Amino acid sequence: MIPRELIATARTPGGEEMRLFRRGSDHMILVGRDELMSTRMSGSEEALAQLTAARLGERKAQHWLIGGYGMGFTLRAALAELSPDAQVTVAELVPEILEWARGPMAELTGGSLDDERATIRIGDVADAIAGGRFDAILLDVDNGPDALVRPENDRLYSPGGLGAARAALKPGGLLAIWSAAPDPRFTRTLQAAGFKVDEEVVRARANGKGPRHHIWFATPR
Question: Which of the listed CATH numbers 3.40.50.720, 3.40.50.150, 3.90.1150.10, 1.20.1080.10 matches domain 41-220?
Fold first, then answer.
């Protein structure tokens, strides 16, 4: 068994410690004992972008908002799907995440942070939602609406937060939300907020194996 090596630490605005570990060629980020993300589990984050692109089709000059960066799987998948006239804004709350992306995990980044279509914004994705107009808003900042990394993120999934996301979408736009598990109550919250909801179950690993993760795709009615 290859031992797990602590590479770096960071603090979220709420004071929780995030720890970056490496085991062989794999990396993982933990808060407490909870593994938030791992390079072994990229499939559902990639699917978040790929399935969004498939639903939006050939819209011109698309502008996406992704919250947050994580290990960059969703950003890289989005850039692979989108045309040269697209824009992708990434809102990441913890600056060290981007430092790790350019440092210990630079090989995984694949140049996506330097793509001219990508803009990195340090800050809360809720603020980015309030200040923009987007073809797609992709949220992957928690393990689900009922499994928050920080209590403040609850506002993203509240009726008010969903209303703000709805107002920030261009006509025909799409809100996509990643979760580690289904949540029927949240499906009803989305519907009550004025969205038509489609749900997909996707595997965590890129090879189609691993745990089943959940994505809501919500379009304003």
Answer: 3.40.50.150
- Could you tell me where the DSSP H helices lie in 67-216? 73-81, 95-102, 106-109, 125-130, 154-157, 159-168, 184-192
Residue count (the chain): 221
Q: List residues bridging with 35 in a β-sheet.
A: 30
Position 184 scores a pLDDT of 92
State residue 55 phi and psi, 5-degree precision.
Answer: -75, -35
Sign of torsion over alpha carbons 206, 98, 67, 182? positive
CA distances (Å), origin 64, targets 20, 108, 132, 171: 27, 21, 10, 13
Tell me the CA end-to-end span of the chain in Å, nearest whole number.
Answer: 52
pTM above 0.90, yes or no: yes
